[in-house]
Structure to design on (682 residues):
DNA sequence: CTGAAAGCGCTTACAG
DNA sequence: CTGAAAGCGCTTACAG
């Protein structure tokens, strides 16, 4: 297929009988250039469909206006809302976004970061893969590029982090269960190192303690992979205990949906006998019956906020940034799995 | 933050006392260079963590190894599977992916395409926004860059298209309903111009005709926005008809889930009184009870295939490509909404 | 087998 | 207010 040629500054300059420098400056609205010249240049540029060669520009100015994003799993609904926020805010600020998936594989994550650098991104937004223990490669990258963590973060990495109020959100959810009269609240969390899981667990523990409820290891269950299937398995475990729980909090909606499905199969009444709470406010949480009480995380806002902080760092490459942790508020959405209207 | 400097060919050349040209050639495994030199150069490059400046390279060779992707809505699960396939195949072939969302807004779609060009992508993969009637801007872009359509395609645009066998898949689904004894099959489709909706409607019509079933306009419903809410509304319409349908085919899972929810509210037995079929095999289709019979679309394969064809075109910029339509096979997944085991 | 040099399209310090 | 020229980091035709 024959492709059109995109005109260059040189061609515009020649057609107008002026220098390339003047054309460049006119297009960039440089103060030195007269209005008349600016207008002539801009008119011709528009006419010829001039598009600046971003590679020549980026090559020259060491800036590409591209942001790299690394996420563990792009198919999670919540992740897509984060990405939507990132795309929107980036676009507003004149940035493009390169996305890659680490598939929760730490080596792949490192590889992705390296290609990001190679592709000249101006900065990186990352949500950590599970099991990211060795942070040396990440620290190395931080020497080269601004990096901001979002959603799946880590206190060990000295950079700005944009997260939700995981601990508090869970605290509120557990407190809600206590308010509706539940006293024996089980939790299904992740066994592997996971920032979100740990924070949520802390909120769970604090809520029990502050309400003088006993902490019972038997109803604190950890799974490798926090999925619907594991939710089902763990529910069978919990409901075969001598002292069954009267509520189950799962740290993800998918696990919570597994819980509901199994409780229904066991003919356990929800929420009267056992109440269920999830985390994420995924679409699924409104499909399941009874609909799931869960925590709504404003993904778009988190994504957009992360972009703002990143561009701030990109624009001030020589400043030392104090590494803030920005907590975005989430909301408990009460539905029929805990409280019937 | 102070950032590390990435070494250049020049530094390697100086340290080794050879020319830049030789270093460049050694790194690119040029045949002219001796093995000894190659090894020395590569060793030092590895040592210094040399990363080629892709912008200098792209600028020089007019190739960026970046693919642009435009999708209507990134939060749809099926879209994320398409993207996953694109990311994987692109990564295998050494390409990065810039993603943007058109939000089903035709103007935004055009804008996105233009920024893609500006950012020097080597080619574009696009899934059309609804209501893309004016294709002039797309045709214009095809003069500049290779473009391939996937999933939401259009016969009017002369380019390679990667889609599923929409018509045949629907035909099979309707035939399945006929096989289980259904005779009055309603369809809920989109009213706006939509490639997928039209193809599915064609399959529906053909199945009825070939089985000598009457086509009744009263049970052919069109909605603007094919959502769960519309599925609910349309079910109320259908179930208040004198001659109620004994099966409902909705062209998306979300609408089909709305159908099931409403049928349950109306105490209609599924599938005995009314069977339900969706399209997509979304996660939701297994959450709803009864689980939804639907059509599984191999998103990853579609995405990967689209990338392959695009890179083929990128690598042969002066060839005229015959615009093929590649149909990827989908599968009917039979579940309890049509057939109880 | 290796090197000197041109050039990709742009920006910008310097000079006028 | 405008221009000539250098240079960003790379590749490659040309010369040896």
């Amino acid at each position: 297929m024959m492709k059109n040629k995109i005109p260059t500054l040189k061609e515009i300059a020649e057609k107008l009988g002026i220098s390339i420098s003047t054309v460049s400056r006119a297009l960039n609205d440089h103060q030195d250039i007269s209005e008349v010249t600016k207008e002539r240049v801009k008119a011709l540029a528009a006419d010829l469909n001039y598009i600046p060669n971003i590679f020549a520009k980026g090559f020259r100015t060491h800036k590409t206006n591209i942001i790299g994003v690394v996420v563990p799993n792009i198919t999670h609904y919540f992740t897509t809302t984060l990405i939507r926020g990132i795309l929107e805010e980036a676009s507003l600020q004149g940035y493009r976004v390169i996305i890659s998936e680490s598939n929760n594989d730490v080596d792949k994550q490192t590889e992705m970061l390296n290609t990001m650098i190679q592709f000249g991104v101006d900065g990186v937004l990352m949500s950590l893969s599970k099991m990211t223990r060795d942070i040396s490669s990440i620290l190395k990258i931080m020497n080269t590029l601004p990096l901001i963590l979002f959603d799946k973060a880590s206190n060990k990495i000295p950079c700005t982090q944009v997260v939700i109020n995981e601990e508090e959100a869970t605290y509120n959810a557990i407190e809600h269960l206590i308010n509706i009269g539940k006293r024996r609240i089980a939790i299904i969390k992740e066994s592997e190192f996971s920032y979100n899981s740990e924070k949520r667990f802390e909120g769970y523990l604090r809520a029990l303690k502050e309400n003088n409820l006993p902490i019972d290891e038997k109803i604190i269950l950890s799974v490798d992979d926090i999925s619907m299937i594991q939710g089902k398995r763990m529910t069978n475990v919990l409901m075969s205990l001598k002292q069954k729980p009267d509520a189950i909090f799962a740290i993800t909606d998918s696990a919570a949906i597994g819980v509901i499905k199994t409780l229904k199969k066991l003919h356990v009444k929800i929420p009267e006998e056992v109440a269920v709470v999830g985390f994420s406010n995924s679409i699924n949480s409104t499909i399941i019956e009874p609909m799931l009480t869960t925590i709504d995380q404003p993904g778009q806002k988190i994504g957009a906020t992360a972009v703002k902080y990143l561009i701030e760092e990109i624009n001030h490459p020589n400043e030392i940034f104090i590494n803030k942790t920005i907590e975005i508020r989430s909301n408990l959405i009460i539905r029929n799995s805990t409280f019937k209207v």
